[in-house]
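Known limitations

Files may contain more than one protein. Parsers should not assume a single record per file. Below, a two-record file is shown to illustrate correct handling: read the sequence, read the token line, then continue until end of file.
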Amino acid sequence: MRTDDWRTSDNVEDRRDDGDGGGGGGFGMPVGAGGLGIGGLVVLGLLGWALGIDPRILIGAGDVITRQSPYQQPYQPPIQRRPSSKAGEPTDTAGKFVSQVLASNEDRWREIFQQSNQRYQAPHLVLFRGRTASACGLAQSAMGPFYCPSDRKIYLDTSFFGELERRFHGCDGQACKFSEAYVIAHEYGHHVQNLLGILPKVQEMQHGVVKSEANRLQVRVELQADCLAGVWANRQQQKEAFLDPGDAEAALQTASAIGDDRLQRQARGVVMPDSFTHGSSEQRVRWFNTGFKNGTVDSCNTFAAAKL
């Protein structure tokens, strides 16, 4: 994957130099606010240790993706930002790569929205280390990257990329770059869903239904975000041939590795489809491919699909 000539984004907020591991203290945020409580984190952490699986894969790489379920927006105390947080271009390699991929998503999605005469607004992306505050609760590394619709920001601890390289076979060094870009593009896909009014509509539909039905709706949300990530890759490839041989395959391996069925089988030895929130490995690969091959938002209507 070649990004040498890509611009960087101005919508990056770098909190990695904030004290105490990324800003967990000083924000008035209780431990475990939003998402899993501390007990759940400990249990999954021990389970991951016993199975040799990093806990962020059990907790979050399902949320490689969105950690609120289902996009709840609980009350949070006002967030007091530290003056050390920086906006603009990060200077380290990982931060610069994230900024370039974010900028590419901004450009391609702005074009898509303009073509359909729809209003577009780019999200911000927060780089953090360890933990930080979000409008959706306390963000922690173990949760993996996620999109918060309340403040329209993507949250990413870049150490997650190191986990991709260490844990997913066939993905190392440069071969991992498109997998990492896929993760960012998936989160950007959630922002696109928010702009299109899909997320609030799904949240409304999930109210008052049993958990298994709410989960099924969530799966459609996540698979659509996978498809939208494929749309971005298609449009960027048309703009300039940026993919190297094997890049797409590496991203598909990543999508497969974080399917609910594979994660459950690794963690529990059994697959429970009613508890899926992101889709099976086969579904995630197929919907990313759908977006990548077609390059259109219309091709990503998982809510109208008879077969997921």
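...continuing to the second record:
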Amino acid sequence: MTIYYVNSATGSDRNGGTGQNSAFATLSKVESLTLKPGDSVLLAKGSVFNEQFDIKYSGTESAPIKIGSYGTGAAPVIHSGGDGIHSLYASNIVIENLKISNTGGAAIYGGDVTNWTVRNVEIAKSGMSENAGAVTFRSSKNVTVEDSKISDVKGDGFWIEKVSGVKLLNNTVTSANGSTADAMQLNDSSNILIKGNHLDQTHAVSPKGGIALVRATDAVVADNVLTGGGFGISAPGGKNVAIHGNDISGYHGYSWSFAVGLGDQGSARDYDISGNHIHDGAWGVAVSGATGSSYSLTGIKVHDNVFDDLTQAALKVDRPASGSFYNNTIETGVKATSISPAIVDAHTFSVSNNQTVANVETALASTETKAAATTEAAVDPAVVAVHDNLKIFTDTGEAHRGNLLENDSSDNDTLALRRFGDEAVGKHGLTLTGDYGSIHVDREGNYAYTLDETKLPDDHSGHVSESFSYRIDDGTSHHSDADTLTVFIHMDGLLS
């Protein structure tokens, strides 16, 4: 098991590469080696490599080949006119603690690979040709991507195709900008877990959206925050799909825009859509499909969700389907259902025990309490952060106030706000300027958001939103968690 060091500034390809003071200079030198199971390739922090890195050899399950970093300073960066990291047929690979940017193709591409883990990798401006996902895996098995950040890319944030065993955990995707780009697209894949991700397509100018889950088998999409785009989650065809506990909002701009939609690219069987907060968009759950399609839509359960601030109905069913819509909470002013008369007459999609409320906050608090109790029983986390929303309907020039910590929890009953955006929160607090206003926060979680109407679109109609990430801990820094504050600005009601 050998550790190879690579330093673009001080290394030399004439060196042996096995010590920090005898580092290689290029990735191509590493490619000339025969890497063995358990070997590591560490790139010096502060280094910049203008070349594609091809991984040709495999590790084993107990001794994977690792690609990482060493030293202090900024993460090492890979630029390339092709892919950033590229591999065919290699197995048991770990890639961590790197940055990949300005690539013509994918930042990371794996084809026919097995047992890959990508963690804490930052990706920006990949896929400049718009033909590649930032992270692309095809015809592979057991792929995990976690705690990574993808921003301002020209293709899909993730493109996963024909992969068995997919885990996408706690990643952030901001603005997948291509004309056909989604934050995440998974085609014809199975055994999928998409959990804890924050996907923000607010500034992606495209009819595309958050997650496209096409013909999936055995998939769980849980506890994600999805904002903006033409849709939230499109699951057009598949079986045994669970969509639980997500916060989906800000999807709009098209008459068909939906939070969760299914039925237009294959038969859909046994979907459980529950515990989601669906708001500030057009349609809620759309059980639909292409005109003239003969797909079978069966066993669709939509229950225990909260719907508010929708311009269309919470549920749309306009194709033959069987299922149920029950125990949902719907804010006053939102239409509960839009079901075609033929389906109503056929009695195949039941509607029962839904409630209409003037204010959804009580229902949300109950949902979060139940979710926290379930999570605590399962893993007993020391600190739990819960997504926050601020909705602005009118503005008098005064700050809009709230507290980020009031719905969060810790085992020792102590919470502190440590980071907001990408900045540390000092003893005097922190002020950041956003897209539509400025916000001040303090360590106790108090915030004050002041809207700047001069930054709003000229037509002052519809709504816009922006998001701020934050991190909390229990006062000891031993346990922490992170989430997001999303500010929704309903321009129709603003004073001007």
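Parsers that stop after the first record will miss the second one. For reference, the second record is described as follows. The first helix runs from residue 27 to 31.
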